[in-house]
Design a protein that fits this description.
The complex is a heterodimer of chains A (385) and B (131). Helix content of chain A is 36%, strand content 18%. With 385 residues, chain A is α/β, with parallel strands linked by helices. The longest helix of chain A has 17 residues. In chain A, 65% of the residues are buried. The mean pLDDT of chain A is 97. Chain B has 131 residues and is mainly beta. Chain B has one domain. Chain B is built from two helices and eight strands. Chain B starts with a helix and ends with a strand. The chains are: A alpha/beta (385), B mainly beta (131).
Chain lengths: 385, 131
C-alpha cells in the first residue's frame, strides 16, 4: 500500500447559493482544488453527494461534474452514504491512490439543498434513517436525534441548557472562517430561546440546511513534492458501520461505529486520542457532538457535555473541535460536509487557519457521521512540513 | 412508499409479527432473517405482546411530507417487554405528557393518507396502558 497525501484543497462559501446550480458549486470547488494542487488533469474523480436526486432532480454526478470541470473522459462516479457521503468519496479516492490504481485523484463533496424548502428537505434528510421502521412512523431526522438526546439527558442528568456550549463554540469559530454560513457569535440565552423542532432539540442544537461544495486532490506522498510544498499526509482512513435504525442497536447512547472507526484510525496512525491537536467533529446536532467525543475516547460515557462546558473544546482547549465553525457554524451541506471537514484540517496543518489557527498543530482528525451513527468515517491527517 | 410495500409489511404493522432465532432464542423486531446476536438464520415468526415502556420520546413540531396534518405528534422508542426496542408514534397522549418509563401498549391506528384518492395507511402506534 502506498502512503497518500493531500496536495490541493478547494471550497465554496456555504449558504443559500440561489445563483449557483449543483454543477456550478461542484465545479467551483474542484477547480479551486486543482489550482491549489497545480494540476490540469486527474486520473479519477469521486463525487460525494446524498440528495441530488431528491432535491436537485439530478443523479449521475460523476460524469456530470467531470465533464463540467474539463475532465470529460476520466473515471468518475458518485458515492453515497447519507451525511457521510463526502468522507465516503474521500475514502474511495484514498483506496484508489493507496492501492496503486491511480496517481492523481480528486474527491469532491457537493450538496444543493435550498432549491426546495421546508418539508421537502425534511423528508429528503429522513432518507438517512430506516425507511420502513423509522421514517414510516413520521420521524424526521431531527426527531431521531431527539430520541437520543432525550434519553441522554434522562440517563446522565444533563439539562438542555448544558448543551449550549457546543453551539456557542461553533459559532464563535465560524466568525473567522470566510467560507462559513453563520460567521457570527451566539449567546447561551439565544440558544435557550430558539424555537423547538423536535423536543428537546431546538434550532440552535441543529446545523443548518445549506448549499456548498468542497474538494481535495490526492496523490502518493512520494510524488507530492513535485506538486506542492505544503502537502498534508493522510495517516489514517477508517470506516465502520452500525445498524441504521437506533432501535436495532443494543445501546443507543453508545455510537459503536464511531468507536470502531476511531480505534481503527488511531491504530493506523500509530497514535492515541491524546495526540490529536484538533478534531473536526460531526456536530450535526449538539447531542451528536457529545456522543462522538465520548465514543472517540475524548470523554467518559455521559460526560461529553462536560468537555464543552469546561472549555476543553475551545481553540486553546485540550481537544479543539469545529475549529472553523463545524456543521453548526460553517453549515451542513450534507454530502459536502465530510470534505469541508478535511479541507479545514488541511488549513490547520498548513498553518493557514487565520484567526482560528491551532498553535503547532501536527495531528488533525476529521470524522463524518452518516445518519445517526450508521456509517462513520474517520480520517487522521499529519502535517509534513 | 407504494401499495406493495404496505401489503408486504402488513403482518409487522398490524400485529407486531417479528421473528425468533431458533439458535439463541433472541426475539427480533423488525424481522430481519439473520439473527444479529449469533448471525444464524432466523425465519421463525414470533408475535410480540405489544406491551412495553417508553424508552425515549420526542414531540415533533416540523413534520416530513405527509405527516404535517398531525403536528404536534409524539414519537417514541418503546422497549417491548420481550426485549427489542421499536420506533413508533404514541397516541392518546398530549404533547408533553409522555415520560420515560411510561407503560404503553400497541394499538392499530391510521398512519397517514396517500393523497385524497390514495390508500389510507394503518400501522402500530402505542398508547398509555389504561388503568
Amino acid at each position: 500500500m502506498r502512503d497518500v497525501s493531500i496536495i490541493g484543497i478547494g471550497q465554496t462559501k456555504v449558504g443559500e447559493n440561489w445563483e449557483k446550480s449543483l454543477r456550478q458549486l461542484a465545479g467551483e470547488a474542484v477547480l479551486a482544488a486543482m489550482r491549489d494542487a497545480s494540476i490540469e488533469m486527474a486520473d479519477m474523480l469521486y463525487v460525494g453527494n446524498m440528495l441530488s436526486g431528491e432535491i436537485a432532480a439530478q443523479e449521475h454526478l460523476g460524469a456530470l461534474v467531470a465533464d463540467f470541470v474539463g475532465l470529460r473522459g476520466i473515471e468518475a462516479v458518485k458515492v453515497e452514504a447519507a451525511c457521510a457521503s463526502g468522507a465516503a468519496a474521500l475514502r474511495q479516492a484514498y483506496i484508489a491512490v493507496a492501492g496503486g490504481m491511480a496517481d492523481v485523484v480528486i474527491a469532491c463533496g457537493v450538496e444543493k439543498m435550498t432549491d426546495e424548502v421546508g418539508e421537502v428537505v425534511t423528508s429528503a434528510l429522513a432518507l438517512a434513517g430506516d425507511g420502513e421502521y423509522e421514517t414510516f412512523h413520521g420521524l424526521s431526522f431531527v426527531a431521531i436525534n431527539a430520541l437520543l438526546m432525550q434519553r441522554y439527558m434522562y440517563e446522565f442528568g444533563w439539562k438542555h441548557r448544558d448543551f449550549a456550549a457546543f453551539a456557542v463554540n461553533a459559532h464563535q469559530n465560524a466568525v473567522h472562517n470566510p467560507y462559513a454560513m453563520f460567521p457570527k457569535p451566539i449567546t447561551v440565552e439565544q440558544f435557550e430561546q430558539a424555537r423547538l423542532i423536535a423536543d428537546p432539540i431546538n434550532l440552535m442544537d441543529s446545523s443548518p440546511v445549506a448549499d456548498g461544495a468542497a474538494a481535495v486532490v490526492l496523490c502518493p506522498t512520494e510524488q507530492a513534492r513535485a506538486f506542492t510544498d505544503n502537502a498534508v499526509r493522510i495517516a489514517a482512513s477508517a470506516v465502520a458501520t452500525d445498524a441504521v435504525a437506533i432501535h436495532d442497536r443494543p445501546d443507543p447512547l453508545f455510537l459503536q461505529a464511531v468507536y470502531t472507526s476511531a480505534q481503527k484510525a488511531y491504530r493506523q496512525a500509530g497514535i492515541t486520542p491524546q495526540d490529536i491537536d484538533l478534531f473536526e467533529a460531526h456536530d450535526a446536532f449538539t447531542i451528536m457532538a457529545a456522543l462522538s467525543l465520548e465514543a472517540c475516547g475524548f470523554a467518559p460515557r455521559g460526560q461529553g457535555v462536560r468537555l464543552a462546558q469546561e472549555g476543553d473544546i475551545a481553540l486553546d482547549g485540550r481537544i479543539p473541535i469545529s475549529t472553523m465553525g463545524g456543521l453548526k457554524g460553517r453549515g451542513h451541506p450534507v454530502g459536502a460536509t465530510g470534505i469541508y471537514q478535511v479541507v479545514e484540517v488541511v488549513q490547520q496543518l498548513r498553518g493557514q487557519a487565520g484567526g482560528n489557527q491551532i498553535k503547532d498543530a501536527h495531528w488533525g482528525m476529521a470524522q463524518n457521521i452518516g445518519g445517526s451513527g450508521a456509517t462513520v468515517i474517520t480520517h487522521i491527517m499529519e502535517a509534513l512540513s | 412508499m407504494g401499495i406493495p410495500n404496505h401489503w408486504r409489511t402488513q403482518h409487522q404493522r398490524y400485529r407486531l409479527v417479528g421473528e425468533i432465532c431458533q439458535h439463541c432464542g433472541a426475539k427480533l423486531f423488525p424481522p430481519r432473517d439473520v439473527c444479529p446476536e449469533c448471525s444464524q438464520p432466523a425465519y421463525e415468526p414470533f408475535t410480540f405482546s405489544g406491551r412495553g415502556q417508553v424508552y425515549s420520546h420526542s414531540t415533533v413540531l416540523h413534520a416530513p411530507r405527509g405527516y404535517e396534518e398531525f403536528v404536534p405528534y409524539t414519537v417514541a422508542l418503546v422497549k417491548l417487554e420481550e426485549g427489542p426496542l421499536v420506533t413508533a408514534q404514541l397516541t392518546d397522549v398530549d404533547a408533553g405528557e409522555a415520560y420515560i418509563g411510561m407503560p404503553v401498549e400497541m394499538v392499530t391506528r391510521k398512519q397517514r393518507e396517500d393523497g385524497e384518492e390514495g390508500a389510507i395507511i394503518y400501522g402500530y402506534k402505542f398508547r398509555p396502558v389504561l388503568q
